[in-house]
TrEMBL record:
One of its GO terms (biological process) is negative regulation of transcription by RNA polymerase II. SUPFAM superfamilies: HCP-like, TPR-like. Belongs to the CYC8/SSN6 family. It comes from Phanerochaete carnosa (strain HHB-10118-sp). It is found in: Nucleus. This is Uncharacterized protein. PROSITE patterns: TPR, TPR_REGION. One of its GO terms (cellular component) is nucleus. GO terms for molecular function: chromatin DNA binding; RNA polymerase II cis-regulatory region sequence-specific DNA binding.
Amino acid sequence: GRVAEQMGNLEHALSAYENALRHNPMSLSGLTQVAGIARIKENYPKAVEYFQRVINMQQDNGEVWSALGHCYLMQDDLQKAYAAYQQALYLLPNPKEDPKLWYGIGILYDRYGSLDHAEEAFSSVLRMDKDFDKANEILFRLGIIYKQQGKYQESLECFDRILRNPPNPLAHADIWFQIGHVYEQQHDHVRAREAYERVVADNPGHAKVLQQLGWLYHQDGSSFQNQELAIQYLTKSLEADPADAQSWYLLGRAYMAGQKYNKAYEAYQQAVYRDGRNPTFWCSIGVLYFQINQYRDALDAYSRAIRINPYISEVWFDLGSLYESCNNQISDAIDAYARAAELDPANQAIAQRLALLKNAQATGQALPAAPGPQDVHP
């Protein structure tokens, strides 16, 4: 079995080890070798079964607990993975010098959404062994984590280090996409566009990057704002992936910017048909109805958005504005603005409008025209 394994013939090695186990079912080395080969072949249920048999005979084997943790992780059984890694940390003689163990723990924390712990685990792997065989994958994962933590410079450094040699199954285009997204988070629209255009050069039908480019051309803050180009890119994105509700929604936003209300309505309908539980979509439909003075329909759309998610300040602000515009319902407007102010206490526009209304209610002063509705940043 060992000879076959050394020669890379895993099938032959496996049958030899299994044959040996028929003669001696309690052979620790035989059980461990079968489990190890099953793990390499990604047959995780079999690997778990054999590692478990080893543990039953040798409960203080930290290395096997570590391997078992990895197998549970690959099966998405996070509770059992966590318990196995805890045992490994307790039993291994030098757990702080075991990069494979910390790589697994990093993935576990990442899956749990515990970003600080995941970052610590992955960084420790690279400190222990800069030539670790999964180093590029770790750099990619760290790049994503730093992006989510708002550590944009660190994120860009990670992506830059793997640009020439991306981890499987990723390609250069995937890394450029991430770089573009970091620049977009930093509101560096020019660099974001350049990165996204590199992706399109490699992969003209990349639906997600076409969507991002469309949104970039739509946004107010970009120096190259162009609604026609936004519509072109979003339409191309939908040709590549017509099922993406977000692309339909963004297309509606681009049409709204050009006051093409009928086309915006059609695009929004396509979006809610695919994802009817998205409060942002309903908020924008409310804005559309508000703009064309269909106040009852606007109220229905905002109410839907609030039922789905009552914690979006823009929806409450729009509702306040709607109550002001429609029959001058000042008490209802004050309630809605107060809720918006609770959710976004730093927003001066909300605070000022609320103070103005309360003052007008107390003194009977005439009010300036109600503010227009705000859309949500998707």
